[in-house]
User: What shape does this take?
Amino acid sequence: MLYIFKMKKLKLQLKIQKYLIIAVLVFVAMPVFAAEVSFDTKTQEIKVNQSFEVGVFINTDNEEINAIEGKIIFPQDLLEIKKINHGNSIINFWIDPVRNCVSNGVEKPDEICFSGITPGGYNDSQGLILSITFLAKKEGNGAIKFGEVKALRNDGQGTEAPLTISNFNFTVRETAKSTGQMPIVKEDRDLPEEFVPQIAADPSIFGGKWFLVFATQDKGSGIDHYEICEGKRKCIVAESPYFLQNQNLDYEIIVKAVDKSGNERTVTIPARFARAWYKDRAILTILIIVALVYLIWKTLWKKRRK
Amino acid sequence: MANFSYQNKSIITTTFLILLAFLLILLLRPVYASVQEASTRSSVCGNGVKESGEQCDGSDLAGASCTSQGYTGGTLSCNSSCNFITSACTSSGGGGGGGGYVAPVTGAVFNGRAYPKSTVTLLKDAQIIATTIADTNANFSFNISGLTGGNYIFSGYSEDNKGNRSSLLTFPVSVTSGATTQISGIFLAPTIAVDKSEAKRGDNLAIFGQSSPNSEITISVNSNEEFFNKIKADSGGAYLYNFDTSPLEIGQHFTKSKAALNGEITSFSATIGFAVGTKNVLAQLPTKTPAKGDLNNDKRVNLVDFSITAYWYKRSSPPASADLNGDDKVDLIDFSIMAFYWTG
Assistant: This one.
């Protein structure tokens, strides 16, 4: 009796084990539906002193993604950044410019932070976020990794999409045969895209005073910086939103978008309000001329009288 | 006496010259002001109203059409610089001529369907580049030039006859330098609205909107079980479906729609919510104000709103207007919400 009971118990245990194994196998074999961020390179072997370009891509896997942020971490002892290119990116607006991450006010030289949006969402398999050109400095093994990457759905609530991450492992060798993915040097003569800067005021920033917003793209090399020239003031490098120094808005504003190849697109915003008459050079010139004519006439008249 | 006369003459002359100077100033002022006015007016290109110095502004073509521009037909539209786009206008007859080299233009032509006589807005990299009016069959066309070779994110939306905006449809386009890229088959999703924000269980809920004329509309009502209903839009593109709420449980539900015509099918429209309860509550009339993201209350969600939000990114104590999900911080989620409601 006891033997039969033990046998039944053993059979039951075997059955449970069998089902557990099947369940685990099904779970493991099930395809994971998730967006993927990855690096695109042709080789993992790079020669010392060789430049190579790494593209950062997203495959949304039928999800509509409208916002993404993250960091790219690389071994600083092996690699040096030569250029960051976000021309041709699927990101329409960068929340923060793509640059070295800053933590507690300290810039991290081995981390690049990016965050941006694509209004309306992006749904495709080969979405270029940005590309980075590295220079291999010395021999060694390393990896370019993603950190704290988030991709949000275009659902009006900003829910996080499941994401898989593929890092890039590489070897730098003195004797590497492969030439790696050499950046293609193309002459970029195209100006940044046309754009319309806008003057705005809002009580929530700059104390409700006038500020300027601007954004454009450059399909060749990406935007390097913007310059603002207000009236006779010296042109300065600026970021949007830019607090306007001339709050009277009575001088024209020139906004320059400069790409990484040095091409400039210039937009002039006319003065919104008329200047006070005493600020007008033409009127002042006339007044001075009249005064001079009067003085000359008066002197001559005095001489004639004598 | 002679001295008195000299002083007198001097005063008179000085007064005369000062008066002359002011006269000159007064004469010059109107000229100066008009130049400034013209400049100021030109800066409001994009406000949807055609003003002096502009050929058009948005959908305001000031009564102009392809025929008034010397063409025989087609669709006249307006570009972001408030000038006419005549590239979608057509000419018949004539011929001959030729010769000379024409530099290749890098551009793109967009053809698609929206709603009859609706205003269609095209965005290039999330900024408005052109608007046009769809014809009576809901067809629209844009011809965009001045592009450079590269990848663009184009998007479009339209407004139906009740002022409801469609969801933003995006389409990544790779433009080839020196060629015109054709993008056809754009089919904007229908608009959708309901007559009640809360429907008494068992009563009908009117689900309505607009799409292309005679298109087949599929209406989805999400509950524990998803209900699909089909209806045909009328010749004006309008559709109305009275949904019996009897099978729905008490609580919040959602509905959306999509359209199909001649083998082409749209994506789903925006999803709108309604409640099933114990009483009927009429829904608010559609407004042009986006539900979220319009920080400066100009009925648009665009670069200005983005810039204000970007100013508060990772800063402490952001204003409630910039904190779109109300979690006391401005982070990526707020930007994602803004990107969803984007109008350009």
Observations:
- The longest helix of chain B spans residues 2-42.
- The helical segments of chain B are 2-42, 303-311, 332-340.
